[in-house]
Amino acid sequence: MEILEEKINGVEVLNLTGRLDAFSAKDFKEKVGSLAKEKRVNLVIDMGAIDFIDSSGLGSLVASLRSVNKLGGDIKIASLQDTVRSIFEITRLHRIFEIFDDSFTAAKSF
Questions:
Q1: Residue range 15-35, pLDDT digits in tens
Q2: This prediction's pTM
Q3: CATH superfamily of the domain spanning 2-108
């Protein structure tokens, strides 16, 4: 998985591309941890280009996102594919993290 960073309206946006599994989620956890240490804890996570996600990768992703919430940060999720959106709804993650159709709209909501 590749993590591309950009800023939209001063908000950090992480665009995830490729395969999200336990191994690649480790890189994501490290990236989110480094941003949290820098006190940039308002994030948009764009998952539109994820082409595979397994349960261990999703579990690691959610653990990372919840750790940011505990630090007082706020996370918005953007561009979920239908299957991943269904997982978010089944596991009630959509009640914890707001979901938007695109990164720009998510970044504007801060």
A1: 999 988 888 888 888 888 788
A2: 0.85
A3: STAS domain (3.30.750.24)
